[in-house]
Amino acid sequence: MRDTVSTDRGYPRLHMIIDGEQIPAAHRRTHTVVNPATAAALGALPLAEPADLDRALDAAQRGFRLWREAPAQQRAAVLLGAAQLLRERQEEIARIATLEEGKTLAESRIEVMMNVTLFEFYAGECHRLYGRQLVRPAGLRSTVSFEPVGPVAAFAPWNFPIGNPGRKLGAPIAAGCSVIMKAAEEAPASALAVLQSLLDAGLPKEVAQAVFGVPDEVSRHLLASPVIRKLSFTGSTVVGKHLMKLAAEDCKRTTMELGGHGAVLVFEDADLEQVLKAMVASKHRNAGQVCVSPTRFIVQEGVYERFLSGFSERAAQLRVGNGLEEGVQMGPMANPRRPDAMERLIGGAVRAGARIHTGGRRLGTQGYFYAPTVLSEIPLSAPIMNEEPFGPVALVNPFRTEADMIAEANRLPYGLAAFAWTSDAARQRRLAREVETGMLCINTTTLSAGDAPFGGVKWSGHGSENGPEGVMSCMVVKAVHEG
Prior knowledge:
CATH architecture of the largest domain: 3-Layer(aba) Sandwich
Largest sheet: 7 strands, mixed
CATH topology of the largest domain: Aldehyde Dehydrogenase, Chain A, domain 1
Helix content: 25-40%
Oligomer: single chain
Number of strands: 26
Strand order of the largest sheet: 16-19-20-15-14-22-23
């Protein structure tokens, strides 16, 4: 990898990448990147000025004209080459991600491999962008083809600092588009490492750019340009709605992966030990800062007390600490805003009558640590039951019937991911039909894979990343009729 001059414990010097050039801070404004485990500064990130964004737009326009003509074999070779480089650089990139985002090193290593499998799958998709010929009488010919949509503006959040940039870059590149990526200012070096792997694998420098800046400034500047033909955004529903309005001014295509409030339906016939083992681990992955994190535990009355006590005991035993340390099971929250949000939401729930079984407090005096927390008997009117908490808190309430449980799962306007645990095959089919969500896990927690679409419904967004759907979201359909 280029430019890996260390500023703190192996953390690389920060820059933007525009038209293949690494752009340093120089005279620009900067954002201080902080290690969430220690609150110590890691480095200074340059923030784009309007001239930088205009240069990125010019490069993206040139890059699209170049890359849309690239044969499938070339696009596939770049993606496969980047996948191999990510394998080779796994430990280095994983360490960077843990330094700037906080998750455990084991989770960061897995995240690198998520990109490897995604790039390998997208490399295959380059060869599968088929059109079709329609049946017509002799002398007539009608075809349907798929063409790259154009330059893409892609905004990625901080919670998966490796995986989110991989999704934002992989699909446009496979489709033949150029892309300007604005990853999160809190975790920039991970995103730069992903893009650098693509450039080192032979991606032309005009095809992909990485800029950082004041989010509202960057989004307004890029989305006001006619060069950009698609917006891809992962983040909160509030920001997503704002960006959709900006994109609508120029009728830009959008893929939106927005907030969630993951429902978990636990039925009396479920294997409770299996449920607890899987759900405690899943809930506390990345300190609960996961858009598909299981959060609202909708538990049938017959197993409610056993589930509540078992979950609380296991959550209380989790080892919380610096993600670089061996044996740590949950790292810090990624920034100081998140513990503040936990205190506000959990405090509001307790004042409304909820019970705390474990946690409910900050940990230590250094960094942004918050204890794994379990609440029960939470009124449905409490803000935490209606706003995505995005943290290490499990909300456990009892319900009597299947109909009541499904109604609670569908109560909110969110619909990104849901989970269900039952051994009843007929009920599994009913849940698959009736739970309003983009992704449903039944007796498993595995919902993200390179070949499977990832996306939500209702306020959780529209469109999909990953799978063939991720590449097709960067294509437009053209019908040609010849006489």
